[in-house]
From TrEMBL:
Name listed for the protein in its UniProt record: Uncharacterized protein
Species of origin: Galerina marginata (strain CBS 339.88)
Leader sequence residues: 1-21
Keywords: Signal
């Protein structure tokens, strides 16, 4: 009965991540293939590669990609009152687990201080290679989310083929998923055991909050966004798709350490993470340190 209890974890995940399956035009969802992003299932035509140096600009009414010369390269309208994406798997052949969400192990925390989050760093190693390959897609990330839950900014490690590319290997990119659109940096291949440092930084505040997501030392993973929303939810997460047996996952565990969350020049006294796991299938998220400067969580796999 492996994976059978993921439905329980799915409900918990969807309560907090509900709006990643944001509103889209029904004429699109009727004909457009849904693909698996680190923010849920998104119409394939709504996946956008962001040129290096460009900025994703998010307002309440639209999302734009603005080039380094100020030219508008892309515009997507944000509609109200239209149906949300159905993020349930579309067919057993491509998604053997009939589940609504891929978030199976995660921890979250909401900043309630007067000072907003200004940076969020996490360090983790590239896990061992899964012993079996069945086209699975695995995502690990730290991420920031607004109270509306309509978006997520995240430096993402993936195994498998995502809408950004990839293969039977590990690679990294930064993503910004907002409503029914997903934006990503270039994908860079990484090696098992390589230490990754995912960093999100609030660079400035004007009429919008101006963020950058990057893996330290990998310039191609840089993604800059501007948004009118405050990003006050922090996440550490494992998200999986088309994964049917334990050997589709790495063995052992992944320690996500060096967690540093700043509020300007200060740090919270601690980070009281709320973990969510799938104990019935032996996929666990545990908290090993609530420090706001050197915190740690651990994802444990079933083999």
């Amino acid at each position: 009965m492996f994976w059978t209890t993921l439905a329980t974890c799915t409900v918990l995940g969807l309560q907090m991540l509900r709006a990643f399956a944001g509103p889209v035009d029904s004429s699109t969802t009727d004909v457009d293939e849904l693909v698996m992003t680190p923010g849920g299932l998104i119409p394939k035509s709504n996946i956008h590669a962001v040129p290096y140096g460009a900025t994703v600009h998010h307002t309440p009414s639209q999302v734009q990609i603005i080039g380094t010369d100020g030219a508008i390269l892309h515009t997507a309208q944000i509609s109200n009152g239209v149906k949300k994406i159905n993020i349930a798997p579309t067919a057993p052949g491509t998604a053997p687990r009939a589940l609504q969400s891929g978030y199976i192990a995660f921890a979250n925390w909401r900043n309630t201080a007067a000072s907003q989050i200004t940076s969020f760093t996490t360090v983790w190693p590239v896990p061992s290679t899964p012993t079996s390959w069945n086209g699975q897609l695995l995502y690990w990330f730290n991420g920031l989310v607004p109270d509306s839950f309509d978006a997520i900014l995240q430096p993402v490690l993936q195994y498998g083929v995502s809408p950004a590319g990839g293969g039977e290997y590990y690679s990294i990119a930064s993503w910004f998923v907002v409503g029914s659109n997903a934006y990503h940096s270039s994908l860079t291949r990484v090696s098992v055991g390589q230490q990754l440092t995912g960093v999100m930084t609030l660079n400035s505040i004007s009429s919008t909050y101006n963020w950058n997501s990057i893996f330290t030392g990998v310039s191609a993973s840089s993604l800059s966004i501007s948004t009118a929303e405050v990003l006050d939810w922090a996440y550490e997460a494992l998200e999986i798709y088309t994964t049917s047996i334990p050997s589709n996952l790495p063995a052992g565990h992944t320690a996500m350490t060096g967690i540093n969350i700043a509020n300007g020049a200060t740090h919270p006294a601690s980070i009281p993470w709320s973990p969510s796991s799938d104990p019935g299938d032996s996929v666990f998220m545990s908290i090993t340190s609530t420090s706001s400067t050197s915190g740690a969580v651990q994802i444990t796999y079933p083999q």
